[in-house]
Amino acid sequence: MANLLAISGGSWMVVNGSLTLGELTSFMMYLGLMIWPMLALAWMFNIVERG
C-alpha cells in the first residue's frame, strides 16, 4: 500500500516538476529499506505472543 501511494504521489510530483525521477527512485529505495525491518519486527512480536 505504501508503495502504491509513493508511486502515485511521486509520479504526480515528477510531472509537475517539483521532484526529479532520481529523487523518486531513491525515495522508493529508502522506503523498501524501511519496510522490511518493520515487517520483521511485527513477525517477531507475533512469535513472542504465541510463545
Features:
mainly alpha; 2 helices; elongated; EC 3.6.3.-
Would you mind describing this structure in some detail?
The protein has two helices and no strands. The chain has one domain. Helix 1 (2-16) runs antiparallel to helix 2 (21-50). It is mainly alpha-helical and 51 residues long. Helices cover 88% and strands 0% of the residues.
**From the helix content, strand content and strand pairing, which structural class follows?**
mainly alpha
Please provide the ordered H/E string of secondary-structure elements: HH
Q: Provide mean pLDDT, rounded.
A: 93
Number of domains: 1
Q: Percent of residues in helical segments? A: over 70%
Instruction: Quickly count the helices.
Output: 2
Shape label: elongated
In total, how many beta strands? 0
Distance between the termini: 30 Å
Instruction: Detail the poorly predicted runs.
Output: none
State which percent range the strand residues make up: under 5%
What is the alpha-carbon Rg in Å? 15 Å
Describe the sheet with the most strands.
none
Kindly summarize this structure in a few lines.
The mean pLDDT is 93. The chain has one domain (2-50).
